[in-house]
Amino acid sequence: MKLYCAKGYEQAGRITANILAAQIIMKPDSVLGLATGSTPVSAYEHLIRRYEAGDLDFSSVHSINLDEYRGLNPENDQSYRYFMNTHLFNHINIDKKNTFVPDGMEADAEKACQDYDEIIRSHGGIDLQLLGLGHNGHIGFNEPGDAFARTTHLVTLAESTVLANARFFASATDVPKQAYTMDIGSIMQARKILVMACGESKKEIIRKAFYGPITPQVPASVLQLHPDVTLVGDEAALI
User: Fold this and answer.
1) Is 214 helix (H, G, I), strand (E, B) or coil?
2) Which residue, 68, 120, 143, 239, has most beta carbons within 10 Å?
């Protein structure tokens, strides 16, 4: 595992963006696995600046997002499609036809999951997967459980995850309780994995995920088995 310790969140975002930018420069038609939530916002801001400066071209890039709330349409300002458009896609020259997010409006869970697995397969897998790290060790919305999920699936969100995401909604009761999420198997098949985790509240879960036993009770611990993982954190999270 490669480890970068930044002075703070802003610098961690810049380092993360630099790694993503290098991937795009080396392979202009990269398939990027992207994440949502507050953690990657700084990285996306830095990518936009590099695009605006003429340093990056996203025209051949494809993206496959980790997850989407069940029951939220793409125009809902709390959906992850809306998040990606607002925080990245609307500001760069990526073709939105080449950007994929699970269909939160598909009521047939089996179909939604099979369709997304086919999208991942048809693109030859993911070149670089960006991940955040939940306080309970979830990656994507793969919550602690008895086994590592091997296909895209519908998950009932843990109470801790609902509470953590409540800051984006009017109240915790407004947070959807289910989501479609990319599986651990697809994440682990990515050629490179890039994890960004900042803040003192992430210190304990980083220790468990990267230095503790490998267990589905800490989903991120499976990353210890991947041959090419980079962790970008700040001093509060790593020291």
Assistant:
1) coil
2) 68
CATH of the domain at 24: 3.40.50.1360
- For residue 65, what are the domain limits? 2-238
Helix (H) or strand (E) holding 233: strand 229-234
Domain tally, the chain: 1
Q: What is the pLDDT along the chain (239 residues), one digit of tens a residue?
A: 999 999 999 999 999 999 999 999 999 999 999 999 999 999 999 999 999 999 999 999 999 999 999 999 999 999 999 999 999 999 999 999 999 999 999 999 999 999 999 999 999 999 999 999 999 999 999 999 999 999 999 999 999 999 988 988 988 889 999 999 999 999 999 999 999 999 999 999 999 999 999 999 999 999 999 999 999 999 999 99
What residues are annotated to the active site? 67, 136, 138, 143
* Spatial separation of the C-alpha atoms in residues 223 and 74, rounded to whole Å: 30
Residue 191 has a CB neighbour count (10 Å cut-off) of 17
214: how many CB neighbours lie within 10 A of its CB? 14
Closest CA to 43 of 201, 226, 200, 195: 195
Q: Compute CA 232 distance to the chain's CA centroid, rounded to the nearest angstrom.
A: 14
